[in-house]
Amino acid sequence: MARKGRRMGGGGKKSMLGGGMGAGQGLLQQVQKLQADMLSAQEALKEETVEASVGGGMVSVVMTGDQVVQEIRLSPDVVDPDDVEMLQDLLVAAFNEATERTRKLSEERMAPFASALQGGMGSLGGLLGM
What we know:
Blueprint: H1 11-47, E1 49-54, E2 59-64, E3 69-74, H2 84-120, H3 124-127
Antiparallel strand pairs: 1-2, 2-3
């Protein structure tokens, strides 16, 4: 004979565990979607380009968002065999500027994902050290 007011089989714990699993599944789906969106954004960066020109347009470098050099353009005026050092300096400056622009582009494109990991997904950001 069961006592009055007592449930058999620990009813409350079972439903609590079931609810927890559903919440975990939802979080997993959010993480999977976020991961897929991040990969898509990274792939899109490969298609975007930035251009950096220095020396009044004498040297230009075109670089993709994932920092692959696509093109280097030199004005004929900058190719002086008696002043190779100037050309070297301009090339370094153009590459550095293009690299910085790709970093900024990447930060802009990936910022929404960083925000989602830090704040929008609750404790997930803490688990990932963010």
